[in-house]
Amino acid sequence: MKHLPDFVLQKLKEELKETPETRVKSLMELRKMLKDEQLTCGIDFEEDFLIQFLRHSKHNTGKAFNFVRNLVRLRKKYPLSLDSIPDEFFLTKESTKTILLLPKRCPEGCTIVIYRYGLFNPKEMSVEEFQRMVMVMYMQLLRDPMTQINGFKFICDFKGTNLQILRTCTPHNLYLLYHKSL
């Protein structure tokens, strides 16, 4: 999206402390920090990718640096968690309908996501596949500046949730979910 509405530009300036000057300055500073870090020194990060983390941290480059570094660590430890998903995956598995992205935003500009937990079938889709689907979806949604600035609103629909689904909420899976969401 090239054009942002006026209320979003105002929010960008007031809440996220982003001006053209701070954007350039913090982007240069973050690139330097990543270049000097052993874990990230050989990686060429796209500008729009780094801007996501700067906006999330309100242009605090130290925090943004930690977020990027954590994502790189996650990628190294769990390489499949950020791999792309083939289209056939969405055509053949009913459990992909667990997450519904609404076509319109709320009046504040937030992306609205509905979680329909009762549609998840652990026999059809493994927890790892589900986590991968969620991770890839959010990484893609966060490429949109409107979502970076305004965030998400989640609606949780527990209709049809059963004990089989709750059994997937192991401490290990909850730990991974927590760290992947950071």
Automatic annotation (TrEMBL):
Family annotation (InterPro entries): CRAL-TRIO_dom (IPR001251), CRAL-TRIO_dom_sf (IPR036865), CRAL/TRIO_N_dom_sf (IPR036273)
One GO CC annotation: membrane
Domain CRAL-TRIO: 101-167
SUPFAM superfamilies reported for this sequence: CRAL/TRIO domain (SSF52087), CRAL/TRIO N-terminal domain (SSF46938)
Gene Ontology MF terms: phosphatidylinositol bisphosphate binding
Matching Pfam families: CRAL_TRIO
Protein name according to UniProt: Alpha-tocopherol transfer protein-like
Highest taxon of source: Eukaryota
